[in-house]
Amino acid sequence: MSYNLLKGKKGIIFGALDEKSIAWKTALRCHEEGAQIVLTNAPVALRMGEINKLAEAIQAPVIGADVTNMDDLKNLFEAAMQHFGGGIDFILHSVGMSLNVRKGKHYTDIDYAFNQKTLDISSMSLHRVLRTAWDLDALNEWGSVVTLTYIAAQRIFPDYNEMADAKALLESVTRSFGYHYGNRKNVRVNSISQSPTATTAGSGVKGFDGFIKYAEKMSPMGNASGEDCANYCVSMFSDLTRMVTMQNLFHDGGFSFTGVTQAVIEAMEK
Ligand code: NAI
């Protein structure tokens, strides 16, 4: 159902890899709500070709950019502004990758060169994106930027590994840049802390099946789906949330504030 919440708005969406991606679902919902979109992903992800299906469905150009490369980001923003014929109203930063997780390294044995790359891709890339927009004055007054994070930034989930540290840094960049962009142009910057969701990045976490089932049982409303997350992103890009900024917004069916649920007690008593 469309409420035309994003009628006339223009946005860049990072990170739609395949139809399971949170960014993919968000792009579809933003389009339904009347937004014009530019899609972007790393050149290596674009080579998979999946994104072209999405691009066709929502009539969006695809512009490749590695989020760790400032030239790529500058080119992306310039091309997007040219395509839109003006400034940008919203950005979804839906990017994450852990090299140590990929290489099967335990948290107590991480490789620091991999770790630097992980932090650059998963955390400082938000700074790079905002910095590029800032330098080009690409974001319109009352613009909105959302990034995606996980509660492992606040609490220990052992198999989340170095991504816990990456998410803590990402949430800090959200607050810090949110301050400066709010001051300068009333642009808001927030992170959405999403339930475990079965995507390529999500399933990379060791023991993901147990992890997602546990979260389901530990949330009074169950896990929030990727579709629910897309809806939340739409509301954050709309004019209905203009004064929300520098926040980490839990979108998890109540998981973050639950001590225990009846379902978990029953499972323990078995
Ligand atoms: P996904 O695997 O579909 O998306 C991750 C995206 O990051 C991919 O499109 C990938 O190509 C992109 N990416 C990786 N390196 C890049 C680079 N150097 N330059 C540009 N793009 C790059 O998975 P998902 O789950 O949709 O992930 C999106 C975000 O949501 C991530 O930040 C993830 O940590 C976060 N998140 C995911 C949860 C889950 O359980 N799936 C839970 C909470 C947060």
TrEMBL record:
Q: Name one GO biological process term.
A: fatty acid biosynthetic process
> What Enzyme Commission number(s) apply to this enzyme?
1.3.1.9
A Pfam family this chain is assigned to: adh_short_C2
Q: Which reaction does it catalyse?
A: a 2,3-saturated acyl-[ACP] + NAD(+) = a (2E)-enoyl-[ACP] + NADH + H(+)
**Homology family:** Belongs to the short-chain dehydrogenases/reductases (SDR) family. FabI subfamily.
Q: Which PANTHER family does this one have? A: ENOYL-[ACYL-CARRIER-PROTEIN] REDUCTASE, ENOYL-[ACYL-CARRIER-PROTEIN] REDUCTASE [NADH], CHLOROPLASTIC
Protein's UniProt name: Enoyl-[acyl-carrier-protein] reductase [NADH]
